[in-house]
């Protein structure tokens, strides 16, 4: 007899929304000298001496997901779904894609499993070059984030398959090594959901500017606006599955809390408006970015390099997304068991409650849980941490319009922290860059340096599109995630930069 009741319990904590951020990198866009205020998101110092006197970001949108557990293993290239050339045997009666569960392939390497889902909008954004040395900027961003970190592989499989004890020995319905009656205790993990906005004001200045080098510094203080948050810190649950009708809990230590779940439902329907912003602000905080950039411009290389950007290479170092959001009056719950085994029955009452819908299922499960565990529910303030990273940038002007950049980002937030983290990555970014057209191909290791990625970025005039992970995915039939961003931004070129360029010519 097969049931997914265990998976229902596991998703209990995350059933009120699926939006994440954490991984917005905009690699191709932010590396560009022509990206105006977007450069400040990579290093605030980069807007000093900007290529534009005035630059305005109209709208920028980014969304994506990734994981290291399940891949979509299609029997045809994913690009066929966009072209409308999916083979007939994989279509349903209405001509749409007939999805098959067998297309989901597990990566069973024993490593902890992670999942990221994210969405971000940037609008408006403004950069203004006050003088040759000073530039200022203003930006507003909305970010929605959902992350699951460090789920043990057996627990991930249990969440996917549920329990099937039809032959009396197997707990999973798929190939596995977790048997009925076996004790399972390696299952600590964390879940974080966040929806927040940030208003950032950037100021950058050039400290040194001579015939050989330029040194710039910049900072972006931020007002952080928390719309909603939710978290689970599972420090460990010892469980057994003696059959399909019960779960035995041993030592248990779980801490979770959340704001009003309806906020995430409103986000899911796209209901972001002035009333939403006015009535749904549930937390505030302060954050900041700091950065410094060194540019080397030897006269001997002036014939090879771009006169408009005027450097052979530049190196930057930045601390990004430091800070936290304080949410007041958050309902939090601690679930503990230190007094021996507790039995949770998956009986007819449980099935009937979940059969009446998610709300009734949650209420019933909560009532039972409170009879077998020590439950401590209280209202308190929670600090949700920002995804702080240390970022190292390098850019080399190979010849005129051709550059090769590099970017290394190291996460500073632990996977068990309450808040967000941005997985570490290392990339190389070759690019063609001119005033009217730009194209680059970010490539490297993402997801804490473990997964290869290949993306693209292109700009034609004020319109740009890009992805940090799409080219290889579309050509492949087996992928673990993808992302995509686009936007419209434009600016007025700096007149002083033009005169300098003309005089050099």
Describe it for me?
The chain has 505 residues and is α+β, with helices and mostly antiparallel strands. The protein has helices spanning 5-10, 27-31, 79-83, 153-161, 262-268, 274-279, 348-355, 358-372, 471-475, 495-504; strands spanning 2-3, 52-67, 70-73, 104-106, 113-129, 134-151, 163-164, 183-184, 189-209, 213-243, 246-258, 283-296, 313-337, 342-345, 374-385, 389-399, 402-411, 425-433, 437-440, 443-446, 451-454, 456-460, 463-467, 478-479, 481-493. Helix 7 packs antiparallel against helix 8 (358-372). It has a single domain (2-69, 107-504), classed as Porin (Beta Barrel). The termini are far apart. It has a 20-stranded antiparallel sheet that branches. A three-stranded antiparallel sheet has the order 4-3-24, with no helix packed on it. The model is unreliable at 1-23, 168-173, 268-274 and 497-505 (pLDDT under 50).
